[in-house]
Amino acid sequence: MKWFHRTPDPIIIHAYGGYANAECMWLYARVLEDGGISFSKKDSLFRNLINTYKRFESDEISYAPVQIVWEKGELLVNANEEGYLEVEHPHVCPVVQAQTSWMKLELKLPDQLFQMESELMVPGTRSDFGVISDIDDTVIYTGVSSRMKWQLIVNSVARNVYQRHPIEGASPWYKKLQLGPSGNNANPFFYISNSPWNIYNYLRVFLEENAFPKGPILLRDIGLSAFSAKKMKERNKYRQICRILTAFPQLPFILIGDAAEEDTDIYLEVARLFPGRILTIYIRTVDHKARMARVAGLISQQTDVEILLVKSAEEAISHGRKKAFIQ
Predict the structure, then answer these.
(1) CB atoms within 10 A of CB 94
(2) Tell me, what DSSP letter sits at residue 323?
(3) What CATH architecture applies to the domain 11-122?
(4) What's the number of CA atoms in the CB half-sphere (13 Å) around residue 234?
(5) Which of 8, 18, 88, 240 is the most exposed place for a label (fewest CB within 10 A)?
(6) What pLDDT does residue 202 have?
(7) Residue 153: phi, psi to the nearest 5?
(8) Strand order of the sheet with strand 11-20?
């Protein structure tokens, strides 16, 4: 495949991070022309709209060769037609840390000066459990269940990351889960969403600004194939969760989502596919009668795993204490 790189604009690598177990690493990135996106707390509505346009009007660099370098080795891979890298490769770095840590890497364009640092989360050997959380309306309020989805449109297009609101109580609850029953652990967190990779940095800054536990953010490509009708098992959330559970077979998990979309369907199917691996599923309620009725029906028909509909973080925290997930 030819590397198409004839452009007057600077070429950059967007490093999306990833995770690693004791033998293998999973890393995500994309090679693009530099869109010059910058944002601050003082941005105007006009600046927010411009940045939104730039995020989705990205110009990919097809088939670019990227050199990945880490402590114990290096690897040369090519991006795909849309500039994406999705790497699964042995790393030969034994995991000995009791607490969750981060593995450093460098991503380079071989014939360019540009290079980018990336990092992979490595769950510690003493982790109590892992947490996999949805993002939209589970961590960040989007308004996807609002009438005519007008709140979703306003939040997604017209507001910058500093103007967005977290779900009330979610950050303190997640911090308690990270610390675990001992209060001094560093249980690993994974964030998944059907949102596109284009808003990765936006979501990363949001999580940092609102003091959520650090963890890989796993999004999706929005190429033409993403809009074709797919079965649930072919969609991003399901594939990412299955990949995580397969990568860490000794680690039990807690799954957190909401009733606005298909989190309940996906999580229940995952629990059936990985029996005994899911400690609890938390589903946040939403203000939408039809969706709540559907989710309640799904929950009433299953017996494979504990699943709770929770109206607040306080309700989930109370349950977590009873189950000895948290202090």
Answers:
(1) 9
(2) T
(3) Sandwich (2.60)
(4) 7
(5) 8
(6) 85
(7) -65, -45
(8) 73-78, 65-70, 101-108, 115-122, 11-20, 24-33, 84-90
Domain with CATH 3.40.50.1000 in the chain: 130-322
Indicate where the chain has its CATH 2.60.40.10 domain(s). Answer: 11-122
Tokens of 120: 């992979």
For residue 121, the SS3 value is strand
Angle at 325 between CA 103 and CA 164, to 5 degrees: 65
Q: Are 256 and 132 in contact (CB under 8 A)?
A: yes
Q: What residue type is 288 in one-letter code?
A: H
Determine the 3-state secondary structure of 143 from DSSP.
coil
Those residues of the chain that have pLDDT short of 50 are 1-2, 45-46, 48-56, 145-158, 224-229
With beta carbons less than 8 A apart as the criterion, state whether 151 and 48 touch. Answer: no
Q: Could you give the 3-state DSSP secondary structure of residue 219?
A: strand
**What dihedral angle (degrees, nearest 10) is formed by the CA atoms of 116, 218, 242, 299?**
170
Q: First-to-last CA distance in the chain?
A: 54
One-letter amino acid for residue 128 of the chain: D
Instruction: State which amino acid sits at residue 5.
Output: H
Say what the pLDDT of residue 36 is: 55
pLDDT at 122: 96
Residue 87, number of CB atoms within 10 A of its CB? 17
Q: What is the CATH architecture of 130-322?
A: 3-Layer(aba) Sandwich (3.40)
- Kindly state the tokens that stand for 125: 């050997």
- Local structure of 54: helix, strand or coil: helix
Alpha carbon 38 to its chain centroid, in Å, reads 22
* Rg from Cα positions in the chain: 20
Cα–Cα distance measured from residue 199 to residue 129, given in angstroms and rounded to the nearest whole number = 28
In this predicted model, what pLDDT tens digit does every residue of 208-233 receive, in sequence order? 999 999 999 999 887 544 444 466 55
Question: How far is 258 from 135, CA to CA, in rounded Å?
Answer: 9
Closest CA to 139 of 55, 231, 203, 224: 203
